[in-house]
Design brief:
- This protein is mostly helical.
- It has 7 helices and no strands.
- The longest helix is centred in the C-terminal third of the chain and has 24 residues.
- The protein starts with 7 loop residues before the first helix and ends with a helix.
- GO terms for molecular function: heme binding; iron ion binding; oxygen binding; oxygen carrier activity; superoxide dismutase activity.
- InterPro entries: Globin, Globin-like_sf, Globin/Proto, Globin_lamprey/hagfish, Myoglobin.
Length: about 150
Amino acid sequence: SSTMSLSEAEVQSARGAWEKIYEDAEGNGTAVLVRMFTEHPDTKSYFTHFKGMDSAEEMKQSDQVRGHGKKVFSAINDMVQHLGNSEAFLGVVTPLGKKHATQLKIDPKNFRIICDIILQLMEEKFGGDSKASFEKVTNEICTHLNNIYKEEGW
């Protein structure tokens, strides 16, 4: 049973777009986080290591920022690999959502912020088609994460 609103063709083009940006998971993951922390400084408050960092340069050099950037991209990569299979997709999204809701207490609006920045970066690096084909995937991810948050009483 598929709760996915993506056709097989959409899944394929989304994967193609994602593969390009995932080739440099650490570099691009870091770029996404640095942009998020710079443009939305309140998001830094969730990360004790990053709180004192003000310059983008400092953040880019930080092992913690780089490590988390890579982690974010790995998690999305797992979701992208399972786009055709609802059960497997939810198997990746659900524990991630639960952890962020209950242990880390991250405001769910931050998922939308990070997804939008990924889309911006895709458009800058690979053009509007890449962004357009991945947009549905980010909507899918955010929708599922928001549902998990609701179940956890947010």
